[in-house]
Amino acid sequence: MFSVFLSFSMQIFGFLGCLSLLTLATTALPDQFLLIAQRTQIRGVDVNSGKDVISPIKSLFSSDFTAYGVDYAAETKEFIWPDAHAGRILVGNSTHQRTIATGLRLPIDVAYDWISRNVYFTDAVLDIVGVVSFDGDCHITLVKTGLDQPRSIVVDPEAGYVFWTDRGSNPKIERAYLSGKNRQTVFQGYGLPIALTLDRKAKKVYWLDSQHNTLESADYNGANWKILFIAATRSYDIHPFSAVFDGANVLWSDWTGRFILSAPITRPYQIKLVRRLGLMPYGIALYNSSNVGGTNGCAVNNGGCSQLCLPEPRGSHVCACCRGVLQSDNRTCLIDHEKSFPYFLVADYNSARGLDVETLADVHPPLRGLQLAIGIDYDPVRETIYYTDTYTDKIHAMYPNGTIETLVYGFIHPAGVAVDWIGCYVYFTDTFLNVVGFAKMNTSELVILIRDNMTNPRDIALDLTRGKMYWTDFYNSSGRIERADMDGKNREVIINNGLEQPSGLTLDIENEVIYWVDKKSLKIEKSNFDGTNRTTVASSLSDPFDLVFYNGSLYWTDWNEKNVVRMQVNASGVPISNATTYATPSPPLRIPSGIALYDPPSRLQTRENLTERYPPYCADSCAEEPREANASCNESDCCFCPPYCVPVTKDGKLSRSCFCTGNNAHLCHPMPTASIESKNESSGIITLVCKVAAGVDVNIPTLYTQWHEGIHSSIDFTWWFGETTTGSCHYHRLKIPIGQRNGTFSCSAANSYGTTISNKITIDSNTEPTNCSAEKGT
């Protein structure tokens, strides 16, 4: 009987459960080993001996680590797993980990195409099968209809197929090309197939059925279905979760018995215990060095695709876009902003939607690659979308070719964003740092304009014709609305009573009317630009967030409605129609937040009205060399200011002089440098040093420097080694143990006038120390 064998086997293998969870393998990894996801950790086990070959790996991000699936990337020696609790997919090992997909609800399993370097996954709440590139740059949904709790997923990269189980109301096994095309049912109508695996050489599918306690098989197309064993006839039950095939045996995890079991396909009743575990085993994966070669249509040069390359059978492939639209060459992805002007740009959780103003239909496919977008705006000249992402805590630029780049980082919680598309500046608010500032396009230059007497600045809007910026601020739960010149001067509060949580705002430039949303009191109000003539426009709303004014109407996003609402108003801002909610778009909006009207032709028409404010008009490239601070301009020059400086506003126009951080010194703070100062193998210590000018003069002292792990994660303060100032340089050293924190560290510096700038270093090899310099106007 199996129970007698199992009892005897536990005596043999039981001591393995006492192995230290912190023991590292002292020898090279075997040619074949088993990876086991145990919800709070992942471990590697030798299939033959049952011993640990890889120390259990836990999340570096959160203690709420929930891994139900796992796979392995041999070329980088990294694990791949879904974190069901956080709704994301991660890649890494015990010392460094990175997120490659977010915005999921309950990711269960993953499968790695090692040839195309794509990760396939299932989500049992969203009911989808998706794919994300291994570098995390591109993430799309392959199958989104007719699914009900998809679970186990496996791939055959050479054959070009993906298989998955669906355990919902109609349990089944399905397959499709790795592109998602040609979807077919492999098996349906008997039991509850759960754990799925492939014999890639024989082109067979094996699975375990948790309803009938069976091990079954079929050909890739579903033919030749067989029941290999029925556990119930042997007086025991199986509770499988995941399965793998090692060329001769099917191995599976039993989550109630806490075993890894194995059965040879030629004699399936001869079940053997591979490993007894203390924690429940869930997903398992098998690495075999002889099974990671091969080729497919994406093996060379990503198949010629600009974004995702998805293999298909017989060496074929298709290109897919996670951002933009596939062009006629079937390879290149391009964000097409030339269709159906105007339309709405809506920041919707992990995508930017382009929605028709009249119908809210998509005018182009959703732009993917965002993670938790809140604010959104665009530059009509360079057709670039800018958005704040509160998951990555960065401001990103999305270019017409679909690529996404970080404009600046180092924020804690960026919220609103507004583009000065003529001056080439991107203005922002940060609700944690409580600042208003701007960043220069195409650079990492960052200036904090206003940082005092604010508690939660939210949205920001620009009046380019008058050189003014407006922003909302929760301000200790009493709320207020402020404005200032675009260089931060002449700050004034225009509304400071009767507000609770003012969030989104928009401007009617022609009629000099400002509109804003109060998220807590659930209403929209308006006033003149100076705060006079304030009235309520709409009240008793559902859950408004942001709004935009266009052509005599207000349009706002609503979190509860998950939609866009519109209302007509006259030139004074008085409603002339009731609020109307659009028909639910398809696909539905998830968390519609920031909204902007994408209409480059209309916005570009204002160029002529702005030439006096920008003498002369700056060319489209935004890449001209800056002039020296306080230098004069010729009429043919494009008068950019030095880094970390902004043109001064005078009489509602931009003057030919610059305002820089500092006490009217017109000197700009230099960029800090991060480098490895020393590496002591004997003591096991790496010393990092952050160098920055102590002050270009007495008016611009360095206020502080700070180290972060990654971009903004906190660092174990036992590693701090102190700060010193020698001559014109300020040094901040950090000592860390070799091998414990391989990855990216960033060093930031700030001065008393609010400038915060950063630099970063990746610890993987020594770099030469960098000299410190303090130069004027750089």
Descriptive notes:
It contains two helices and 61 strands. β16 and β17 form a beta hairpin. It is globular and about 85 Å long. The N terminus and C terminus are likely disordered. With 778 residues, the protein is an all-beta fold. The strands form 17 sheets. It has a four-stranded antiparallel β-sheet with strand order 3-2-1-24, with no helix packed on it.
Give me the number of helical elements.
2
For the largest beta-sheet, the strand count, sense and barrel status come to:
4 strands, antiparallel
Please estimate the helix content. under 10%
| Alpha carbon gyration radius | 30 Å
Bin the strand percentage: over 45%
Q: Give the number of DSSP strands.
A: 61
Distance between the termini: 80 Å
In the predicted model, the low-confidence regions spanning at least 5 consecutive residues are 1-27, 611-640, 652-671, 695-704, 710-721, 751-757, 764-778
If strands are numbered along the chain, what order do they take across the biggest sheet? 3-2-1-24
Mean pLDDT: 77
Q: What is the molecular shape? A: globular
Output the structural class: mainly beta
List the helices and strands and how they pair.
Blueprint: H1 2-13, E1 32-37, E2 42-46, E3 52-57, E4 71-73, E5 78-83, E6 88-92, E7 97-101, E8 107-113, E9 118-123, E10 128-133, E11 139-143, E12 150-156, E13 161-166, E14 172-177, E15 184-188, E16 193-199, E17 204-209, E18 214-219, E19 226-230, E20 240-245, E21 249-254, E22 259-264, E23 272-276, E24 284-288, E25 308-311, E26 317-320, E27 325-326, E28 333-334, E29 343-348, E30 351-356, E31 362-368, E32 373-379, E33 384-389, E34 394-398, E35 404-408, E36 414-420, E37 425-430, E38 435-440, E39 446-450, E40 457-463, E41 468-473, E42 480-485, E43 492-495, E44 502-508, E45 513-518, E46 523-528, E47 535-538, E48 544-550, E49 553-558, E50 563-568, E51 580-581, E52 592-598, H2 600-604, E53 645-650, E54 653-660, E55 673-680, E56 685-693, E57 702-709, E58 720-726, E59 729-737, E60 744-751, E61 756-762
Antiparallel strand pairs: 1-2, 1-24, 2-3, 4-5, 5-6, 6-7, 8-9, 9-10, 10-11, 12-13, 13-14, 14-15, 16-17, 17-18, 18-19, 20-21, 21-22, 22-23, 25-26, 27-28, 29-30, 29-52, 30-31, 32-33, 33-34, 34-35, 36-37, 37-38, 38-39, 40-41, 41-42, 42-43, 44-45, 45-46, 46-47, 48-49, 49-50, 50-51, 53-54, 55-56, ...
